[in-house]
Amino acid sequence: MVSFFKRKGFLMQLPYTKAFEKLLLDIKEKKAAKEKDEIYKKMNLVTAKEKMGLMMEEKERQISIHSKYYPIKEAKRWVEDIPEYTYNMIIFGLGLGYHIEEIQKKVEPEGRILVIIPEEDLDDISTYIKENSKIILDKRIQYYIYKDKLGLKHFFKKNVFWDKVNSLQFFHLPSYAQVYEEQLAIMIEALRESILGFNIDENTMVHFAKQWQRNIFKNLPYIFKSFPITLLQNQFSMVPAIVVAAGPSLNKNVDLLYDIKEKAIILCSDTALSVLLKHKISPHFVFTIDGGPLTYEKFREVDYNEVPLVYGALSYPKIIEKHKGNKIIFSNEAYIQNLFIAKNHNLSMAIGGSVATVAFSAGIYMGADPIVFIGQDLAFTGGKDHAEGTMYDKRKPNLKKKRKIQVKGNVEEYVYTDDTFKTYLDWFQDAIASDQTDRRYINATEGGAYIEGTEVMTLQSAIEKYCKTAYSISDKIQEIFTKSPVFTQEEIEHIVKEQRKAYNEFSEIKDKLRRSIDYSEKIKEMYEIGRIDEKNHRYLLKQLDRNDEWLKEQQQNFNLLDYILQKSIRESYMILYRQEQPNETPEEQGLRIMKGNIALYQGMLEAIEEMEPVLDEYFETMKKEGYIDE
Questions:
Q1: Which residues are CB-contacts of 589 (< 8 A; sequence separation ≥ 6)?
Q2: Among 340, 418, 465, 630, which residue's Cβ finds the most Cβ atoms within 10 Å?
Q3: What does DSSP say about strands 285-288 and 414-417: parallel, antiparallel, or unpaired?
Q4: 10 CB neighbour count, 10 Å cutoff
Q5: pLDDT at 15 over 50
Q6: Contact indicator for 194, 168 with CB cutoff of 8 Å
Q7: Entry pTM
């Protein structure tokens, strides 16, 4: 008994013999392509005193991959420093698998071993490895033939056990640092960016969970009346879209948007809205996503009722409340998603972490082509991070406190960015690289960081080349807003009734949680003082199991608390898994598990108590709106 919450997201896989056969087919195709290349690197098996050795041939040089004499002893020596009980193991290079066999002994039965195979690391190796059932049949092993950085990041995202990222270990064959220097450097960078992205998501979730949960229910009365993002899907196919961000370079060319409104869709980030309105430019859509109160300052002094508002379910509620015009909702949040999916509307959309990435994703979602960036500096152009006329224009970023990263520039040879901007830059580049269509991407920022996959030109040149035809964009948008609401009065009443039914169970749930905390505290005390009363210990565990079974049956009632509970679950995992130590005694393990349980139960209890007044306010609003009879 650890927790009644099941771990989510583990990869469903084919039988591993079939998975390896697929790998061999990929290897064969890669080999055929490489043999056409004059500089094809070739691996050759050589005889060693113990098993086989491996030699790399490239042009006129030869490099020994394994020891010419004792490759197994060498492999044992290589992996000596890898700790026991590892959960996440990433290996660069297949070789003949001697190192993998030794690493297998160090990885937990429930762990994962990710093997990155350079394209040239193939040939006779595959035939030899095919005979090694220890490697082929190990369900912990996932193979990936190196393609590019984007592919690596997708592979890591799907396959790393992120809840145990603290146990992640990395190994590469020493000779591979020489043979595959460039690929190894790219792989390490892809892993670093993947970990950074996970940590940002994790920290954001923990920090904002309470705020986001409140926002969902404060926004829900407006969400029911909003138009779904699905109404925009592919509605502007082959129409140019200009994504307006609020970087310092926006001031260079924003005035050019005034005369092109019906020749391109203008998709504006919330921070840039004040700049456009000061230039008497009304965008077709303004986007907002951030859930903190600071975001409201972007709207406080502007009249944006005539601009359709595209918002996420977690957006700051005052922004939604103040806007009296047409609203469009998108959401990746499970609770809101499920409400709309039941009505055949999937509100999900790639987000990327910033309002500019959302506007960009919306352009793709609408079918726009080309997509033109302006104000998308992603760098400290002129020592600034935002355009003049935004809420940030009086603030000068303290660059001394930031880790400055040098990247290629659009105008300058290189510019400086930081970790946050670099994360968004990587996201844009990955999104563009993932696009399998012929869509064109134009960077007309006229400053800032170069976005790989874009064509750099001035906004004036982009307008002259792509914005020649009037498309009656505003008329089409108004036509979309003539559609009927997604939910009828009766459907909303039914949803609210079910919400109140779940809410009414909270009192009993809180009682069970308090009892579970008490049982766990008593067991924890036994472990701490080192005296286990076996009879009482069994009784307390039995009571905990009964409570957990009952709580499992109540899981549908926790849907109202999805985000805030995720915070509790993650904090519990921090104790249950990230504080796990090698060679724990049963008592040490029991103490850690009880601490994790207490954190989970306490977090759940606090979540309910935190949300009860928010739900009271929500139900009162819905009553005023006529969705509750009594």
A1: none
A2: 340
A3: unpaired
A4: 11
A5: no
A6: no
A7: 0.74
